[in-house]
Amino acid sequence: MTAAASWPRVEGLAYGGDYNPEQWPRETWDEDVRLMREAGVNLVSVGIFSWAMLEPKEGLYDFAWMDELLDLLHANGIAADLGTPSVSPPAWFFHQYPEARVTDKNGTVMGFGSRGMASHAAPEYREAIARMAGELAQRYGSHPAVVMWHVHNEYGVPVAEDFGPRAVASWRRWLQSRYSTLEGLNAAWGTAFWGQRYDDWEHVVAPAATPTIANPAMKLDWARFTDDQLRECFVIERDAIRAHASQPITTNFMAHQSWNTDLWKWAELVDVVSDDHYLWSPDPDAHVGLALSADLTRSVAGGKPWILMEHSTSAVNWQGRNIAKRPGEMRRNALSHFGRGADAIMFFQWRASRSGAEKFHSAMLPHAGTGSRLWREVVELGGHVEALAPAQGSVVEAEVAVLYDWESLWAQDLEWRPSDDVQFRERMRTFYERLWRDDVTVDFAHPGQDLSRYKLVVAPASYLLTASSAANLTRYVEAGGTLLVNFFSAIVNENDAVHEGGFVAPLRDALGLTVEEFLPLREGDAAAVRWTRGGEQVLASDVWQDHIALAGAEVVAENVTGPGAGLPAITRNEHGKGVGWYVGTRLDVDALKTVFDAVYADAGIEASGNPETLEVVTRRGAAEDFVVAVNHGADAARLSVAGTDLLTGAGTDGEFEVPGGGVAVIRTAHVSGGEEV
Ligand code: GAL
Mean pLDDT throughout 571-583? Predict the structure, then answer.
């Protein structure tokens, strides 16, 4: 079999969730499909945790129940996203192959009785997953219910790393192929420091438990290696399926919620990108994190429509305090994902489990049954998803790129950084939130990719920036782009070694400065900057200041207090046809408003002027646009747009009111460059 389809064959947008019927008696399945039809479900993911049911003893398969299930779904017009069960091998597998278990960094071998405990380096595991994926594909590759393959589940979760002997042997082979010689490895890792020089490959260790911190370059390579191992396992299963089946193959990512996988690389391996997202309940504005995750997913998908494979109808069960969604919140969440490019709205899971670790997790069909508020909202959302069909395939276009690089995240997360208060995730979220509140739609981008189509490129946390990526950013500015770089960026190269010429040196031309010394603040200390461009303002700052060495940049704000008092804090540099901005202190979302307004002016970008709690994104279709508005505020908000709401059929000739907590998807004339086309 060759050419894979790139979207599952489902009528309209897909709606549904994980379905685990093996947890229920057969008669419940009939009720399930009846209720699925009532809710408008047209796609379910099955088999993800079914290995023990499909192969109860090694080599002894039982496909009868899966045959019956797929036939039942098909007879009811419900398509299947067929999972491979590799995240949860059966008890017999670990009994038979104990060396295929994962070892943690302290040498503890993980036991059975959970999930995700197989070593991705173990040949027995690799052989078993290839066999199981092949068996499934052979049997179901032509089954009319099966429209997609779902390999594994959330690679890298719950464990990605394995420090067992098999993994360490693979690690040495991986290093040999990366560096060829020990001289190469010694140079890349800077092993002259602390006398860590190696003269034999067999002496190279994994960064397991060490007395004090392990070599950071080694740890960065270990993160790359770990990710590579997971990708190898995906490819093994993908290829085993592809030999017998032509449906699209995916695996569910967790963009910006799990950090072990470099999704720029993963996205190239799948036929269609799918993602899971769960609200982080300590965050009162968790819907902003949701939007970030959705934009990141669309970006790794190269702008193509993607599948929201899992989110929750209400509370999850695995956080400290599992906060139930309020009435209307599930719909806002789903529509926000849709607005940012998801053409499939799926949940974990269809029917709440009575037993096991996730019995307190919400579901489409809750323990309370169909007499519940949640069920009514699930049915209502199914109707909405059906109404969105005209927008299927429309795309999101962004004028701004935010740089996101998993390698930089891995490197920044290593120990012994100048301040514990400087965090990749926090900076990414804060800069993103500024843009989100301004309704400025963004793509995420790798710093090495072509950025020429963007008016503005923002680098909230680019600690690791290779010389070639820095040259790419510099060319972008020279050609007329506007670049905004936050502090603690362009510090190290791909080996976590400080750049020659010092901090920020590779961006010296673009930004008109370098940084002499970091001046982090003590925990909890507040500071301020005086902004002087277009009127004076004092902005609150904290955590960090830089001793900036100017090399041509204009100072637009200086530190008023703190260790860097009197030194430049924010700068602007004209270079070639463009502008490079630098923010050398930590600003919150409100303080960043002043900076972004000035940066938008340079880049020719207009913030919407809508209330900050009204989220607005436009999906562009072939002949018309779809303006998706999600009101996270309690009060009604007005939106200037003419068209018809796909969800209610209500028309508007210029002003549309989105009720507090409400949503709307306005089908409107396709506008390009201010003119109708
Ligand atoms: C996901 C996982 C699901 C389920 C869910 C609960 O990360 O893929 O199987 O465990 O979390 O929120």
Answer: 99
* Residue percentage of the chain with pLDDT more than 90: 97
- Write down the CATH superfamily of domain 17-161+236-392: Glycosidases (3.20.20.80)
Radius of gyration of the chain measured on its C-alpha atoms: 26
Residue 232 falls in the annotated catalytic set: no
Closest by alpha carbon to 414, among 221, 549, 565, 265?
Answer: 221
How many A from CA of 330 to the centre of ligand 1? 17
154 belongs to the catalytic site: yes
| Per-residue confidence (pLDDT) for residue 243, from 0 to 100 | 98
Long-range contacts of 638-642 (CB under 8 A, 24+ apart): 639/610, 639/614, 639/664, 639/666, 641/666, 641/668, 642/668, 642/669
Give span(s): CATH 3.20.20.80, the chain.
17-161+236-392
Residue 278 Cβ < 6 Å to ligand 1? yes
d(CA 489, CA 219): 20
Is the full-model pTM beyond 0.85?
yes
Per DSSP, 413 falls in state T
Q: Is the CB of 153 under 6 A from ligand 1?
A: yes
Tell me which residue has tokens 């007395």.
211
- 543 Cβ neighbours under 8 A, 6+ residues apart: 419, 421, 422, 520, 521, 585, 586
For ligand 1, whether the C-beta of 19 sits within 6 Å is no
pLDDT for 4 equals 73
Residue 430 CB burial class (10 angstroms; 0-12, 13-18, ≥19): buried
The first and second tokens of residue 485, run together, are 């770089």
Question: Range(s) for CATH 2.60.40.1180 in the chain?
Answer: 614-676
- State the Cα–Cα distance between residues 609 and 474, nearest whole angstrom: 31
Catalytic one of 161, 237, 310, 494: 310
Whether 313 and 364 have beta carbons less than 8 Å apart is answered as yes
Ligand 1 neighbour 432 (Cβ under 6 A) = no
- Range(s) of the chain covered by CATH 3.40.50.880: 400-603
pLDDT digits (tens, 9 = 90+) for 72-122: 999 999 999 999 999 999 999 999 999 999 999 999 999 999 999 999 999
Ligand 1 binding pocket mutation candidate from 150, 278, 348, 353 (most atoms within 8 A of CB)? 348
